[in-house]
Amino acid sequence: MASKKEEASKKCVTEYYVTLLVDKYATSPKKSEVFYDKEIALNRSLITTVLDVYVKSSKSCFDPVRCLDGIGASGVTGLLWKKHICDNVAVTINDSRVKAYERIKENAELNHLDVEVLNRDTCVLLHEQAYNFISLDCHTMAAHYLDSAFRNLPKDGILAITTTDDAALHAIMPEIVLRNYEGFVARTFYSKELAVRLFLAAVARAAARYNKGLIVLCSIAFKSSFTVVVTVKRGSAHANKSIQNIRKLIHCTMCEDRTFYPLTNYPIELPSSLLGCGCSRNFPGKVAIELGPMWSGSIFSEEFLVAVHHHSHKFPWKVKADLLLRQLVAEARCSCKDENKFPHEEENFIDKYGNESDNENQAKRLKADDDDKETVKSGNLLSTYTVENELINPLISLESNKDPAPPFYFNLHRHSPKGPQLLRVDTVIQFLQKAGYRASRTHFDRGAVRTNASLSNLTAVLTQAANVN
Ligand SMILES: [Zn+2]
Known about the structure:
Elements: H1 2-8, E1 10-15, E2 18-23, H2 41-56, E3 65-69, H3 76-85, E4 89-94, H4 98-110, E5 116-118, H5 122-128, E6 133-137, H6 146-151, E7 158-163, H7 166-169, H8 174-181, H9 191-209, E8 212-222, E9 225-234, H10 236-243, E10 246-252, E11 258-260, H11 279-282, E12 288-295, H12 302-312, H13 318-333, H14 349-353, H15 358-378, H16 384-391, E13 410-411, H17 412-415, H18 425-434, E14 439-442, E15 445-451, H19 455-468
Parallel strand pairs: 3-4, 3-6, 4-5, 6-7
Antiparallel strand pairs: 1-2, 7-9, 8-9, 10-11, 10-12, 13-15, 14-15
C-alpha cells in the first residue's frame, strides 16, 4: 500500500534528455528530499559546460576527471554530466538522505547511466575522498560545506556552489549573513553583487585555511539563486594573496556612493573621505556605513567565460545559455570601447593552445610548479615569469594583464538626475565610453551600468546626456 502511495507521488520530468522521477507535490527542498528545481536548469547547464571546458583543458590531475555532485536530490546534475560528457568523467552522486539516495539510483538506472551513487554525509565524504570537480547545490546552507569542500580539492580543481540564500541576497536578514559569512550587509541598490562578494569572502577564508588561494572564474545571479565557480592554487603565498582581497566597503547611505578600503592595517583618519561624494560634509550625523568585509577581487574571468560560451555551442542548451554567456563576457570585459562584436572564436584559449604536445604542456607545468615553490619559499608575490607563463593558461591564472571589471554597478533609476525622461542603459553606456570610461550592462540588474566612472563622474555624464537627448 505504502509503495503504491509512493508511486502515485512521483512524476516524470525531462531535462536535456535526462529523464527523472521527482516528487509530484514538492514545493521546496525543505519539504521534499527529492526536490527538483526547474528554475535553476540554466545554472546546471552552465556547470555542465564548465565541466566540459575543464575536461578539455588538460588541467585535471585525475584521468578521468573525478566529479562529485555532492547534494544530489534527484541526481539531475550528475546525470547531465554523464549523459553529455560521457567517458571522460567518473561521476559520483551523493545524498545523505535515504529517500534521495534511492531515487538517484532509480533515476540512474532509468537513463542507463553508469554513475556511482552514495548515501554519505556530504562533509564526511569530502573530507575522506578527493574529487577535482565538485558541484554543491546547497539551497540555503552553503556555509556548512565550505570547510570540507576545500580539504581535498587539488590544484586547479573546480568547485561550483549554488545557493538560494534569499536572506543574504536581499539583505532581509543581515544577522544570518553575519553568522554564515562573517560580514555585515545592508539593503542597497547593488545587493546582489554584495551578496556574491560576501559569500566569496567566506569561500576564500575556507580555502586559505588549507593553504589554497582562490581564483573566481564566474559568478552568476539567476532568479532567486546564485552560482559561483572557483578554482584554487596551492601554497601559502597564493593563500595570502587571495586573503588580501577581503576588505571592508564604505557605503554612503545618502547617495549610494561606495568604495573599498585600501589594504592597510593603519586606521583611516576620516573614512568618509575615501568616498567621492560630499554627503558627510553636507548632511548632519553619520551618513557612511561599513559593509562586509567582502571579496574585493575579480568575480569573473573573461577568458574562462569566452571558453564556456564557445563550448556551450555543442550542447542542447546553447540557445538558452547564449544570451546570458554573451552578457557575462561583456560584463567581465567592461570595455571602454563600443564592442558589440564578439571575440573571434579562434581566439578561444583551448583551441589556441590545445594543439601543443603534452610534453610542452608538461614542461610548462613543471616550470610553473618550480616557480610556485620559489614563491612560497621567498614569501614574495608572484614572479614575472609565473605571470607571463600563466597568461598562456587563463583557466589557472591568478594574475592577469587585463584589469578586472570594476566592482559593483549603478542603478539608473536611483542615480539619474531628476528630469523628463530616463535614459536607456545602452545610451548611458555609449556616453560613458565616449567620455573614456569602461562601461557595460550587468546581469545582476537590467536597469544598471557597471562602470569605472565614479558616481560624480557618472552624474556629470548623465546630466550631459540628458541635455543632448
Ligand atoms: Zn554620498
